[in-house]
Write a structure and sequence with these properties.
The chain contains 17 helices and 20 strands. With 553 residues, it is α+β, with helices and mostly antiparallel strands. The protein has a domain of 230 residues: Dipeptide-binding Protein, domain 3 (Roll), CATH 3.10.105.
Length: 553
Amino acid sequence: MIRRLLSLVFALCAFAAPAHAKDELVLAMTQTPGTWNPLISSMLAKSLISNMTARPLTAWDANWTLVCLVCSDLPTIANGKARVIDLPDDGKGPGKKGMEIDIELRDMRWGDGVPVTAKDVAFTLEVGRHPQSGVASSESYKRIIKFDARDDRHFTMTIDRVTFDYNSLGLSLLPAHIEKPIFDANPAEYRNKTAYDTDLTNPGLAFGPFRIVESVPGSRIVLERNPTWTGEKAHFKRIVVRIIENTAALEANLLSGNVDYILGELGLSLDQALAFEKRHKDKYNVIYKPALIYEHIDAMLDNPLLADKRVRQAILLAIDRKAISEKLFDGKQPLAHGPISPLDPMFSPVARQYPYAPADARRFLDEAGFKDVKNGIRHNAKGERLSIEITTTAGNRVREQVAQVIQSQLRQIGIELRIKAEPPRIFSEGLNRRNFGGLAMYAWVQQPEGVPRSTLHSDEIPSAKNGWSGQNYPGYRNAQMDKALDDAERELDEGKRRTLFADIQRIHAEDLPVLPLFFRVDPFVIPKPLKGVVPTGTLNSSTLWVEQWRWEK
């Protein structure tokens, strides 16, 4: 009888075991960043990991709703936590309008037990504003002209203008108690000496559900549960992220069981996912998430061969983007006609569009002075050969295929395209320093109704003078575009703002400093036992909610 009772108890215990009994999750992605500091450089690979170890003040969730992550309540004009104010007269004319925003921080702690406080916010702003710090874009930090902390968790920021997106505060915090002594010692060298790169496993760098405990550059990042995390407890005790830069090798590792899940934002290509779903849909759920991910080609406008917009227009007219989408992406990736996605409320259909028209492309090249054809390649009156280099990320099979198709299509109109594939880290560093000679193919991840100021405004051209801050890598300058971007930010009326966004798209389509290709659809190939992964389709990735991920057998 005792043995039977014990057997029954053991059986009940077995049935009562938690569904998420898997303690370790092995992930994979295709890139590793050059720096882990959240303010320096912009790489999706970095944000996918840092979203597990920290949180921005606010973020866009899967429903494209702005939510607080580090703050307690989203400040709005309606709840009185955001106010339009008159700024003091600066002596150059009548006083301007600005905004005051009140923030209350949640009760959160860095991994070494030190509370996250207003001091961290103040220090982050200090780094962001410093001309030598090397942040990706300093504009948003410079707009905050006053910072008043009432106590450790309550502060007010004064912004030097009124904007419609005043409460979209995607500020990534730095731990002042660790980073401030390094920064104060030499701001110009901070980007090279930040603890995020010299002491990445320091628990004081994390206040999210996980912290980094091991990092092998180019190979893996290991994260474990952060014991000081004050939010929902993560289901997994440990997450291993493997770096596999070749997309073909990704699939092999998934099928062999070396990897549990490939991050959808930076993993399998769309054509791989389509084929994979046909073979393995019994074991995996495949979600095709339309995203605000803008695949495009930057044109280096300092290059004399690309300075004439007719050359850039000819290049776009000669690329059969529709055929590329149908052949490589099963028609699932919509063509891009500019930086604003058709999914975005601010999209305008009236801007100029460029169909596949090689005859028009040849005419434009003739008009731009490239009439003389020798051995199939055009030359101008100076004898300069129309030969251009395109740089992209190595290991991404689809991107390399697209580059080869474009190379073939441009050859048909007399343009020689030389393909150069670089490791993602090297490619990113080259972009940040504007160190590419002709064309650069990559993607931007955006937020809903985001004004593309950092990529198109003339103030955002990176240079040694501004510490390589800004993301206008082509070096685009147009006073009309600058005004449209500035006005769009400041316009609170949605209807009027829509008109200004239409102007941005119209001017962009005429000048083409950037050649639009596609708006990506991200494939999420999720093993059926893995629950809680919700694609967002925006710059705020699914890993921001990693504590909800669980394994249910």
